[in-house]
Recover the amino acids of this structure.
């Protein structure tokens, strides 16, 4: 082994243990913080950055046509500020910006936004792209945090601030030269959360001094969590500290741009809103660099679940997801909040039972109180059909719910237990999820199609001196039996008639019935329990006549008992 190799190995061996390579994020000294006692009572200003921050993170960026479709979707959802790209970065971005303006695709109440670094040629190109826009946000940024000052730029704080001021001055000049557009100025100290708070404030104040905002024409100060590096409470402290120390606060809008490196971007945004932020930049379903941007869908629907109007329309969330997945070629995870395939799905038997009872008890005009479901799925375009799914871990509640929701069968409580055990054994045997159609198939096989050894061939009843008289024909294997009987009702008379032909070693235990639909042509379902040999057996029957449905249910129960 050479000396060089030996030294290299010794150097590797001397490295710090992995956990000691990192330092805890320093807290903000804010002992009188106020945000923990506040509530979010209104929606923030939303700005979609899907067409820039989301698009640049795609392996295959959206085509112009796909961008146009995405832009239209964002407009329909209700975004009033949409960052449409980085027109100085590529010809495609420039052309898309021009197409929106030249083809008059931007509604009067929507403001387009473009991002630009603090470099003269890029700023001039951005203004060229925005020529003719009615209203536009020019979003200027430069890096301010210590690591980038030292490692990337090799610049002092003063030099970094001068870059921001120089860029802001050119934007002010070009805006004044193009008064036909209503200009809104936005500045981001990139990696705000990693920059010294005092320096972030200093640079923002310097930019504001150039742009001279007023309460009627406010500056947007965007404070990005470019790389999420702290717990959400520290981020909230940063925002509250900044807002407290910002001069001319009534002429500024504090904006958030939260990434999700720690997986807490949503929580960080919500706490920062409590801390005084007024505007949120993000993307649909959290698309963006690395672990992604803030998921605006989730934050908006979180507000919705608290009774706050989010001012964004996600009433057809499946369509929003479809357009997003098709144009970005990304996928919404199955357990993503609100939009995932499994979001409103319960496999646990106890959860299924609680959801089932919750739906039954829910007042259509009352406050939403269905267990395990934070919002009503139909409010975002989801259906009840797939809310509860069934596997071997599920219980009787899931089976009953699926039968009722999909096929109208409202099984008696005791029958749910019996059929639940049957379906658990069936699911155990298959070792997979069981769909509603399969559950219905097993229900039919186990109850409705049980015609051996006894099957009904004919049945008629009539009232006779306060008693019911029946005549019937049943087939027992290959033998045809004629029955006649009297009783307090059709079932009582039929059971009595069965005894007369030697089929009487059972006790009638329970009965329930209901309609399977509405209108003259609807069918009826009947459920009967009999006791035989010390065990209880349920049966079910369906017919256009409730009497025949009841008799079929009796025979179904007996066939299962014999």
């Amino acid at each position: 082994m050479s000396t060089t190799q030996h030294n290299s190995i010794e150097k590797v061996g001397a490295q710090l243990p992995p956990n000691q390579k990192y330092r805890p994020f320093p807290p903000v000294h804010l002992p009188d913080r106020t945000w923990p006692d506040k509530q979010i009572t209104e929606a923030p200003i939303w700005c979609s950055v899907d067409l820039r921050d989301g698009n640049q993170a795609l392996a295959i960026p959206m085509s112009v046509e796909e961008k146009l479709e995405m832009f239209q979707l964002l407009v329909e959802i209700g975004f009033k500020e949409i960052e449409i790209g980085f027109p100085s970065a590529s010809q495609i971005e420039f052309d898309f910006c021009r197409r929106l303006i030249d083809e008059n695709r931007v509604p009067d109440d929507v403001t387009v936004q473009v991002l630009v670094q603090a470099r003269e040629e890029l700023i001039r190109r951005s203004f060229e792209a925005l020529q003719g826009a009615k209203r536009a946000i020019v979003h200027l940024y430069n890096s301010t945090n210590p690591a980038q000052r030292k490692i990337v730029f090799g610049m002092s704080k003063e030099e970094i601030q001068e870059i921001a001021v120089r860029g802001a001055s050119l934007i002010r000049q070009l805006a004044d030269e193009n008064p036909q557009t209503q200009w809104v100025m936005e500045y981001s100290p990139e990696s705000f959360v990693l920059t010294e708070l005092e320096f972030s404030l200093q640079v923002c104040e310097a930019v504001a001094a150039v742009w001279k905002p007023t309460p009627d024409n406010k500056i947007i100060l965007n404070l990005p969590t470019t790389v999420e590096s702290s717990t959400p409470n520290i981020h909230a402290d940063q925002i509250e500290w900044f807002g407290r120390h910002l001069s001319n606060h009534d002429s500024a809008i504090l904006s958030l741009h939260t990434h999700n490196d720690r997986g807490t971007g949503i929580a960080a945004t919500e706490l920062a809103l409590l801390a005084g932020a007024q505007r949120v930049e993000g993307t649909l379903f959290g698309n963006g660099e690395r672990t992604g941007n803030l998921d605006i869908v989730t934050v908006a629907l979180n507000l919705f679940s608290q009774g706050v109007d989010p001012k964004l329309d996600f009433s057809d969330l499946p369509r929003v997801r479809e357009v997003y997945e098709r144009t970005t070629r990304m996928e919404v995870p199955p357990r993503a909040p609100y939009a995932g395939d499994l979001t409103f799905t319960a496999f646990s038997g106890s959860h299924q039972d609680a959801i089932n009872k919750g739906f039954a008890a829910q007042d259509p005009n009352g406050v939403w109180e269905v267990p395990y479901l934070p919002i009503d799925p139909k409010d975002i375009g989801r259906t009840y059909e797939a809310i509860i799914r069934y596997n071997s871990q599920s219980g009787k509640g899931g089976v009953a719910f699926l039968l009722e929701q999909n096929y109208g069968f409202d099984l008696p409580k005791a029958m749910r237990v019996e059929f639940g055990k049957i379906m658990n054994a069936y699911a155990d045997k298959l070792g997979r999820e069981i769909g509603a159609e399969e559950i219905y198939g097993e229900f039919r096989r186990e109850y409705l199609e049980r015609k051996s050894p006894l099957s009904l061939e004919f049945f008629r009843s009539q009232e006779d001196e306060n008693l019911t008289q029946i005549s019937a024909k049943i087939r027992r294997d290959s033998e045809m039996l004629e029955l006649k009987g009297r009783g307090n009702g059709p079932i009582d008379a039929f059971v009595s008639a069965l005894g007369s032909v030697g089929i009487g070693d059972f006790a009638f235990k329970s009965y329930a019935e209901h309609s399977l639909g509405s209108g003259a042509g609807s069918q009826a379902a009947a459920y009967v329990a009999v006791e035989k040999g010390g065990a209880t057996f349920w049966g079910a029957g369906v017919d256009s006549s409730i009497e025949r449905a009841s008799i079929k249910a009796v025979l179904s129960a007996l066939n299962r008992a014999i």
Remarks:
- The longest strand covers residues 454-464.
- The chain has three domains: 43-328, 349-448, 454-561.
